[in-house]
């Protein structure tokens, strides 16, 4: 019987009107790799904060570490017990070297005011050796790739003799190869007795590395499962409470004329000889692993990444996409991956964020901004997309993720594009909101818009798309048409190439 | 929107209080027409400079070269004015246009350095400030240019009915900037870009054009300030107004402009300028030296920020922070109930 | 690794550092200046130059620490002026000795710096606004009290100390003896101390950490309060010492010698590679930045370029060098992101 490193009983947490967690039990065995899976809004973030001592659960909750009941459990207590969290932003110092970042805790806590550089170098070397990673210790962290930075974060946690590592969505921005490298490091650590808790919603990866997985949904625990006993599909169903079925489309579906025709488009080192077509009313899916060139291609179609060869036609006319303005004029809209950085101006109002793309149309006769026209289009779109907000003058950052994404969609719908590119449209959005986004996409297509749906979540691609293209290492390597559009078949296609 | 109108109310109240205080302290001399006219006249130069500074700060940058550009515009105009005797009205017009045109060229250079070459605004405008200061010294040989036709003197010293001409000019151009910022596509883009240049770019805003235009505008306003300066001093020289730079930043910030960009309004700046000018005037009348005035200005700014801080703390406690803290990819170190 | 590889690695590392380019600029200018007037490249000239710029160099070092921490301080000129005036007043009225004078100036400086720290840390006022405000307050109050009067006729023990040379070199061809001024020595001492703090103490590394990622610094457990207090208090201390040095250098306390040159000092530090966003900057770079500005002024004078042209030429040099630096930085970012993409797409 494996010993329990951490036992959490009856964990609840309420924030004002929201019950983030409701009577959740969780136990972690020493030496296991455990995954905490759940969609956005499931409560996993709050759970992580409670486990790491950053947040205190409501009364009635009980925490046991190594079998001992904890009566006051703060972040510093967790750290003393060897429990460390690596947050998604990694908390590294980009201007300092790898070695210094790794040995940071000794710098902070060390007895003498003088820095012992020799010791810093030794700690760094020792820790990097321990995880069998070869990084230049004197390199500033900001010169490293994200995957390498992640390894530095892990090394830093290990340098403090952590025995229980909590990693929050570690694979979110990594390519397939980088994920494999990360996992081999984690496996290595497991053999040395480390316990790991992954927070993730990328089920394939979860199943690859974990021993057990606990599923949370809407603040409640759905169950804890041995990874050998459960499939990805079953987990998805448990996480979302529903199953995403592949799109039911008859083969005789007719679409409008081609809105987007891409012919042998290439950009050095990024993608090669990509040929694809999107018709009006059609939702074409583009998927593949991270690093396959999907996003670079999308940016090229939006004017931010001009191609070096090939051609693009919009509505039959050849276009040169050398700027966002070119793309807008050609009738292309783009819902970006990184909502808060690329998609929205967080501290400005919803109203302003919606009209930013069409601002030139909202002028009165003397060329000044017409408040009435602005109001009209804003209220229309807000109503049409059912965006929940206190007022159109509320700042974006006060809205939920799903509603924020609807604002992004609203601003692009306002431009009445022929082609709408959706890049990772449901990242960081809870299940209910995801469905409204899917429905929205479909209704746009039904009204004649062509949609390029880019996502790495295969289930979502299968559910929404009329045709699916698979990209790998910069090329389109496969195309799936009905009736072959299913999660399984798409995955098979992706795996076949690997 | 809500934030800005409540800020305006606060500023209005402050202005009323300061005005009242100065009036009470010098009942005979503060609220007189002469004094108000003098205030309006003095405010014009700083006001025009501050308007330009504010515009660049809204984009998230700063323009350290405005004083040097103001001097430059004044010097160029002075050269043209003194080149022909007697100067006709038309020459005066040409002279002013020449001065303003040179200012705009410098501003566009700033914009290019910042938007195209990618130099940070502080460094770019620091560099051009030193460059233009140097240029001013070279072309004037360190000396004074004087002997202006009376037409020019009217700008800085004359009155339009009861209003000082300088103040009228300032008011007019302030209104123009307000119109630009609030009611045009350009202004809209400035606010959005200043808040998040990546998102604005992804939404079709031409960031480069917006930046270059903003810095050109800032220098244009500096040029206008230069016109009024040389008119009021009846001469042009390198180095006029060199202690105004930090004051314009102070005025902008007091008026609600954020140092990080995205926020700031002309009405707010206007009130802030009135507050600072009233303090200055009132204190001078009482007999305090100008240096007391600048200390008071410093204290006022600190007081405003400290007050804001205290008020927001009270507001937090009242709301008791029951909303879940936004998950920004990291946790809070302190326990949730007390986190800010 | 072959020795050939290793030397290319060193060169690559050097080329990636900002300081290398500043040093290069210094070398190039020096060559040009010497070609026009060999009197430039003499020890006498350099020692004299350092004596003049030691004062500014000390201030630059203080500003460096503030910039590394991610903030900015504009009030140091006022702090230095106030410290000098207080020291001078006490010295002229009550006498004293060198150590007392230094102590007074330093203490005043620390207090004024800590006031900045309080506003910045406890009231969360942005650093630029706080220090612009305190610049006005400190300077305004000083001049209002002193009415702009100049204090001079310092006691001879004070002036003599200021004229001291650490070592003397007899002048050749009947020229007067010269040597390293005590001011330069003070500057060097401060350089060494700050270098040690920044490079080898936890406090120094904490300053870099805060500048690099303030939130992470908090999470890792750094005592942010004490670090902020140190940064701005230290700047104040430096300001005080600079005020002391200014008295030694000029033999008088004047209202406008120091005040008004804030941006000049900041330019020196920033040219030397310090970043306004924080986290970057080295002592070496700052020294090089000061030297660059110093030799530009000195060189132009020695080349008999009229002083009217100085600002213009220096301005052009600054604009060109920051443009070059920014452009290089941009290219590096693009190169880095492209090479990351490369790993996946097969060319």
What labels describe this entry?
heterotrimer; A: 498 residues; alpha/beta; six-stranded mixed beta sheet; 18 helices; 35% helix; 25% strand; C: 347 residues; mainly alpha; ABC transporter involved in vitamin B12 uptake, BtuC; two-stranded antiparallel ribbon; 14 helices; globular; disordered C terminus
Question: What does this molecule look like?
Answer:
The complex is a heterotrimer of chains A (498), B (340) and C (347). In chain A, 35% of the residues lie in helices and 25% in strands. Chain A is globular. The longest helix of chain A has 16 residues, at 176-191. In chain A, strands 6-7-8-3-9-10 form a six-stranded mixed beta sheet, with helices on both faces. In chain A, strands 16-17-18-13-19-20 form a six-stranded mixed beta sheet, with helices on both faces. A four-stranded antiparallel beta sheet of chain A has the order 2-1-4-5, with helices on one face. Chain A is an alpha/beta fold and 498 residues long. Chain A has helices at residues 44-51, 75-80, 98-102, 104-109, 117-130, 146-159, 176-191, 203-209, 232-240, 294-301, 324-330, 339-343, 350-355, 371-385, 401-413, 431-446, 458-464, 487-497; strands spanning 4-15, 18-29, 33-37, 62-65, 68-70, 83-86, 164-168, 195-200, 212-217, 220-226, 258-267, 271-279, 283-288, 309-314, 317-319, 332-335, 419-423, 450-454, 467-472, 475-480. Chain B has a domain at 45-247. A two-stranded antiparallel ribbon of chain B has the order 1-4. Chain B has a two-stranded antiparallel sheet with strand order 2-3. In chain B, α7 crosses α8 and α8 packs across α10 (207-233). Chain B is globular, with a radius of gyration of 22 Å. Chain C is mostly helical and 347 residues long. Chain C contains 14 helices and two strands, in the order αααααααββααααααα. Chain C has helices at residues 3-16, 18-36, 43-68, 76-94, 98-121, 127-146, 156-163, 182-200, 202-212, 214-220, 224-250, 262-271, 283-302, 310-342, and strands at 165-169, 178-181. In chain C, a hairpin with an 8-residue loop joins β1 (165-169) and β2. In chain C, α4 runs antiparallel to α5. Classes of the chains: A alpha/beta (498), B mainly alpha (340), C mainly alpha (347). At the B-C interface, α5, α11 and α13 of B face α6, α10, α12 and α14 of C.
């Amino acid at each position: 019987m494996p010993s329990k490193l951490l036992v959490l009983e009856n964990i609840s947490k309420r924030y004002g009107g929201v019950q983030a967690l409701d009577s959740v039990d969780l136990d972690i065995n020493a030496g296991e790799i455990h995954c905490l899976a759940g969609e956005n809004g499931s409560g996993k973030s709050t759970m992580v904060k409670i486990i790491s001592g950053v947040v205190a659960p409501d009364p009635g909750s009980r925490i046991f570490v190594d079998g001992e009941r904890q009566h006051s459990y703060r972040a510093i207590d967790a750290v003393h017990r060897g429990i460390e969290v690596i947050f998604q932003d990694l908390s590294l110092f980009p201007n300092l070297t790898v070695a210094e970042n790794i040995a940071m805790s000794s710098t902070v806590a060390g007895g003498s005011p003088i820095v012992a550089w020799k010791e810093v170098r030794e700690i760094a070397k020792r820790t990097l050796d321990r995880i069998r990673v070869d990084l230049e210790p004197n390199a500033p962290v900001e010169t490293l790739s994200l995957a390498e930075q992640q390894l530095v974060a892990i090394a830093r946690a290990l340098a403090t003799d952590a025995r229980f590592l909590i990693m929050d969505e570690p694979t979110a921005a990594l390519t397939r190869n980088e994920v494999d490298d990360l996992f081999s490091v984690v496996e290595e650590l497991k053999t040395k007795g480390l316990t790991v808790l992954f927070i993730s919603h990328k089920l394939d990866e979860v199943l690859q590395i974990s021993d057990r997985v606990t599923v949370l949904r809407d603040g409640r625990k759905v169950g804890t499962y041995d990874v050998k006993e459960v499939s990805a599909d079953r987990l998805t169903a448990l996480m979302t409470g529903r199953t995403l079925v592949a799109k039911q489309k008859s083969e005789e579906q007719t679409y409008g004329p081609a809105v987007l025709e891409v012919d042998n488009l290439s950009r050095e080192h990024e993608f090669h000889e990509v040929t694809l077509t999107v018709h009006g009313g059609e939702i074409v899916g583009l998927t593949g692993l991270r690093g396959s060139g999907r996003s670079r291609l999308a940016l090229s179609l939006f004017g931010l990444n001009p191609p070096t060869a090939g051609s693009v036609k919009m509505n039959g006319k050849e276009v040169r996409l050398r700027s966002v303005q070119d793309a807008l004029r050609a009738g292309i809209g783009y819902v970006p991956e990184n909502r808060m950085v690329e998609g929205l101006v967080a501290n400005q109002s919803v109203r302003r964020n919606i009209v930013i793309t069409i601002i030139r149309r909202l002028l009165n006769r003397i060329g000044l901004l017409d408040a009435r026209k602005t109001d009209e289009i804003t209220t229309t779109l807000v109503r049409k997309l059912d965006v929940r907000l206190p007022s159109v003058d509320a700042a974006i950052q006060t809205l939920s993720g799903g509603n924020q994404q609807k604002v992004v969609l609203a601003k692009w719908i306002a431009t009445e594009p022929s082609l709408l590119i959706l890049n990772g449209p449901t990242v960081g959005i809870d299940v209910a909101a995801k469905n409204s986004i899917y429905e929205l996409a479909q209704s746009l297509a039904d009204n004649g818009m062509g949609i390029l749906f880019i996502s790495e979540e295969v289930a979502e691609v299968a559910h929404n798309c009329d045709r699916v293209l698979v990209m790998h290492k910069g090329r389109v390597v496969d195309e799936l048409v009905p009736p072959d559009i299913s999660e399984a078949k798409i995955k098979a296609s992706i795996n076949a190439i690997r | 929107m809500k934030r800005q109108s409540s800020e305006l109310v606060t500023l209005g109240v402050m202005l009323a209080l300061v005005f009242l205080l100065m009036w009470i302290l010098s009942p005979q001399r503060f609220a007189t027409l002469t004094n108000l006219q003098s205030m309006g006249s003095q405010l014009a130069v700083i006001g025009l400079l501050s308007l330009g500074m504010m515009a660049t700060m809204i984009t998230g940058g700063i323009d350290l070269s405005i004083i040097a550009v103001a001097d430059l515009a004044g010097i160029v105009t002075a050269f043209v004015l003194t080149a022909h005797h007697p100067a006709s009205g038309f020459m005066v017009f040409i002279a002013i246009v020449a001065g303003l045109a040179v200012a705009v060229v410098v501003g566009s250079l700033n914009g290019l350095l910042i938007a195209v070459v990618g130099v940070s605004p502080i460094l770019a405008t620091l560099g051009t400030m030193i460059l233009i200061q140097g240029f001013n010294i070279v072309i004037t040989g360190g000396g004074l240019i004087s002997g202006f036709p009376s037409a020019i003197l009217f700008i800085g010293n004359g009155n339009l009915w009861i209003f000082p001409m300088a103040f009228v000019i300032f008011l007019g151009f302030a209104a123009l900037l307000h119109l630009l910022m609030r009611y045009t596509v350009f202004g809209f883009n400035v606010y959005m870009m200043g808040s998040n240049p990546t998102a604005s770019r992804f939404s079709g805003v031409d960031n480069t054009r917006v930046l270059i235009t903003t810095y050109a505008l800032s220098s244009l306003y500096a040029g206008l300030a230069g016109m009024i300066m040389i008119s009021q001093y009846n001469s042009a020289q390198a180095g006029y107004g060199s202690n105004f730079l930090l004051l314009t930043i102070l005025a902008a910030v007091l008026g609600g402009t954020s140092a990080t960009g995205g926020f700031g309004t002309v009405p707010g700046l206007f009130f802030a300028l009135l507050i600072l000018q009233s303090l200055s005037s009132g204190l001078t009348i009482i007999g305090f030296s100008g240096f007391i005035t600048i200390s008071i200005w410093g204290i006022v700014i600190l007081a405003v920020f400290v007050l804001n801080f205290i008020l927001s703390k009270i507001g937090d406690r009242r709301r008791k922070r029951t909303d879940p803290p936004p998950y920004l990819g990291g946790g809070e170190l302190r326990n949730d109930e007390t986190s800010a | 690794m072959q020795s050939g590889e290793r030397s290319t690695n060193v060169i690559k590392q050097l080329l990636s550092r900002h300081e290398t380019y500043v040093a290069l600029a210094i070398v190039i200018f020096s060559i040009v200046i010497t070609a026009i007037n060999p009197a430039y490249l003499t020890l006498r000239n350099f020692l004299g130059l350092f004596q003049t710029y030691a004062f500014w160099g000390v201030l630059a070092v203080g500003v460096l620490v503030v910039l590394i921490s991610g903030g900015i301080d504009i009030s140091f000129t006022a702090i230095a002026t106030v410290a000098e005036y207080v020291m001078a007043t006490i010295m002229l009225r009550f006498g004293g000795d060198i150590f007392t004078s230094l102590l007074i100036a330093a203490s005043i400086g620390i207090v004024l710096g800590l006031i900045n720290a309080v506003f910045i840390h406890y009231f969360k006022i942005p650093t630029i606004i706080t220090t612009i405000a305190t610049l006005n307050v400190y300077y305004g109050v000083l001049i209002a009290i002193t009415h702009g009067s100049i204090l001079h006729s310092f006691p001879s023990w004070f002036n003599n100390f200021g004229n001291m040379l650490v070592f003397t070199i007899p002048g050749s061809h009947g020229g007067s003896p010269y040597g390293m001024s005590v001011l330069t020595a003070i500057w060097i001492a401060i350089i060494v101390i700050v270098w040690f703090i920044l490079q080898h103490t936890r406090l120094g590394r904490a300053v870099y950490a805060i500048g690099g990622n303030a939130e992470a610094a908090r999470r890792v457990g750094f005592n942010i309060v004490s670090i902020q207090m140190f940064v701005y208090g230290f700047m104040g201390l430096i300001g005080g010492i600079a005020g002391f040095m200014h008295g030694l250098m000029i033999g008088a306390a004047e209202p406008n010698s120091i005040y008004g040159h804030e941006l000049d000092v900041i330019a020196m530090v920033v040219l030397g590679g310090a970043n306004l966003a924080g986290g970057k900057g080295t002592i070496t770079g700052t020294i090089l930045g000061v030297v660059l500005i110093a030799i530009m002024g000195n060189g132009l004078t020695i080349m008999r370029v009229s002083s009217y042209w100085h600002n213009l030429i220096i301005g052009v040099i600054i604009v060109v060098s920051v443009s070059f630096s920014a452009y290089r930085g941009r290219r590096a970012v693009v190169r880095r992101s492209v090479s990351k993409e490369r790993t996946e797409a097969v060319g």
